[in-house]
Amino acid sequence: MATTTRIVLLLFTSIFFLFTLFCFTPFSHFSSPIVAKALSFFHHNADDAEAEAVSSISVDQHHGQSIISPAVDEKDVVVLTKNNFSDFVNRNQYVMLNFYAPWSYWSQKLAPEYAAAATMLKGKVVLAKIDATQETELARKFNIRGYSTVYLSVGGVRKVRYFEERTRDAISNWVNKKLNNTVENVTTVYKAYRILDAEPMMVLGFLDTLQGPHSEELAAVSKLHIDVKFYQTSNVDVAVLFHIDPQIKRPALIMRKRECVKYSHFDYEGQFTRLAIADFVSVKKLPSVITFTEEDASNIFENPMKKLWLFTPQRSWKVLCIFKEAANAFKGKLLFVHVEIGDELSAGRRLSHEFGLTEGSPTVVAYYKKNGVVKKHIYDGELSLYGIKSFAEEFMEDKFLIKAEPAVKTVIRLPLHSHASDPSSIPPAY
């Protein structure tokens, strides 16, 4: 019994001694490297710690919590503003555009990955960033509604939205895949069926041979339209499956859009060139009726086709359906554009004012620009399928006098072309 009591007392004394030692011995006396490393943060000079924090971290609020992100080395990321944007994207074939907000959690999270991707893609694509909170004009033009929003610009006039993961590897892999958008050979009917099932929008060339000048022209276009898949075949059975007459003179070309199971045949009149094919794809890949946004203003106004515009108040579904049905009869001949007139600050409202329209009922306008002169004619008939189609036919055949318009103050500002003499100027939209 006495022995047991002594053991208990000895154990209690040892625990008390260790407790006293832990509580009253300075932390610096502990020799454990793990403890020393952890506690060393409490012995930093306050001024040094503050300076280090300012230089190496940024704080943001996300769902009520503060996050700390490391400093970002953005040596390979180009900063774009309204002063250098147009000139830069026109001088560089491929430019990735990151519209961000400095205070945004997702913008801060993307920053180091984007910077790393810029280094990984250096020499292939330029990665640029635009502060959308400062460059509001550029943000409106690209219809930026959230941060970060990322695009890949091609040749200064075409752009593809980035929706993939926001990591350096995902960005790099996506860009490389787009840049390697080559023409794929289709040699079997089985593969052709798989393509028909998988591709929402594609181009197929029916050639005598899968190598040579015609294949090279097709490959060049695939680099411009990176949002469209390109294929080529010399197999007659494959051509038939894609609605190409097997007896047709080669080279032949079709574009297919799955959403309407529509096949558009390329009538090149002996000019199977990259320029002619690119123009054909530009026209055919657009929907039958384009809903106007500032983001698409460049593609709409720069398109050389005559345009038929429908301006409507909100929720004018009935007349819009009629307009779309009429558009199907003029695909590739006229460009049909729908503009919804919103509030006073909307692009649709401002554009309707520039067209000289009064607010109220839906209005159809024929619009044409030739030799720098803008002409338009407002339709005053019944907004029926027959009426709109008749008006469109007259417009195509120039059967009515189109009123010439004086120069107007532009409301939509477009990117420059590479041949512009004054890089700081912005040409009028119409």
Uncertain segments: 19-69, 407-430
Largest sheet: 6 strands, mixed
| Alpha-beta classification | alpha/beta
How large, in whole angstroms, is the Cα Rg? 31 Å
Please report the first level of CATH classification, the CATH class of the largest domain.
Answer: Alpha Beta
Classified in CATH, the superfamily of the largest domain is Glutaredoxin
What is the CATH architecture annotation of the largest domain?
3-Layer(aba) Sandwich
Mean pLDDT: 75
The count of DSSP E runs of length 2 or more, i.e. the number of strands, is 18
Instruction: For the record, give the distance between the C-alpha atoms at the N and C termini, rounded to a whole number.
Output: 106 Å
Instruction: Please list the strands of the largest sheet in the order they lie side by side.
Output: 13-15-14-16-17-18
Instruction: Work out the strand percent.
Output: 15-25%
Contiguous helical run count: 15
Shape: flat
Q: Provide the helix percentage.
A: 25-40%
CATH topology of the largest domain, anyone? Glutaredoxin
Number of domains: 4
Notes on the structure:
This is Thioredoxin domain-containing protein. With 430 residues, this protein is α/β, with parallel strands linked by helices. It has 4 domains: 10-43, no CATH class; 77-179, 3-Layer(aba) Sandwich (Glutaredoxin); 183-281, Glutaredoxin, CATH 3.40.30.10; 289-404, Glutaredoxin (3-Layer(aba) Sandwich). Helix content is 37%, strand content 22%. The protein contains 15 helices and 18 strands. It has a 6-stranded mixed β-sheet, with helices on both faces. The longest helix is centred in the first third of the chain and has 23 residues, at 2-24. The chain starts with a helix and ends in a 26-residue tail after the last strand.
